[in-house]
Design brief:
The chain is mainly α. It is built from 9 helices and 5 strands; from the N terminus they run E-H-H-E-H-E-H-E-E-H-H-H-H-H.
């Protein structure tokens, strides 16, 4: 959105543990700190003519809030999960591609198609790379040529694979606790 000259915010409540490492890195940066907002703050800022982009989900019972969806005239959905009967209806664009390994792969492809010379920060590239890595279980599940093309593009944009791996590495205590449970 920023690359198209549009103001964008991310609506997010307290992040789930699995995205905490990347979330903390974004929240440290002044350019993102004010742009990651709560649901309540978003409800106060929304204008009907704004566009809501929902990523990695298309089922009503999985979104953060159904109320906020009804506050927008234009809704866009980008997802890679199989279609569900409970899907959000009335979207101006519903880009649901089950062949994709992840929504991050789809977003990466969109960036490449929209911009002649895409520019993104290293952290943005790493966030997309992390999304692909997590959904493919470190490139071992549901990967294809397009997955590796997206990852290659993100590497060219500065994504540091070692940094991403370390972000999501388990500490020894967590590993041992998991092993005990299993």
């Amino acid at each position: 959105a920023r690359g198209l000259g549009k103001k964008a915010v991310i609506i997010n409540e307290e992040p789930y543990l699995n995205i905490r490492p990347i979330y903390d890195k974004f929240i440290e940066l002044s350019e993102y700190k004010e742009d990651i907002i709560s649901l309540e703050r978003a409800k106060a800022k929304v204008k009907r003519e704004d566009t809501l982009i929902i990523v990695d989900v298309h089922a009503r019972n999985h979104v953060l809030s159904n109320d906020i969806i009804s506050m927008f005239d234009k809704v866009v959905i980008i997802d890679h999960h199989r279609r569900t009967p409970d899907q959000i209806t009335g979207a101006v664009l519903s880009f649901i591609e089950t062949y994709a390994s992840s929504t991050s792969e789809l977003v990466t492809e969109l960036i490449q198609y929209i911009f002649d010379k895409p520019e993104m920060s290293v952290l943005e590239a790493e966030a997309l790379f992390a999304g692909i890595r997590v959904d493919t279980k470190s490139f071992n599940f549901k990967t294809g040529v397009r997955t590796f093309e997206a990852a290659s593009f993100l590497k060219r944009q500065g994504a540091r694979t070692q940094e991403v791996r370390e972000m999501f590495a388990q500490d020894l205590d967590s590993y041992n606790r998991r092993a005990e449970i299993i």
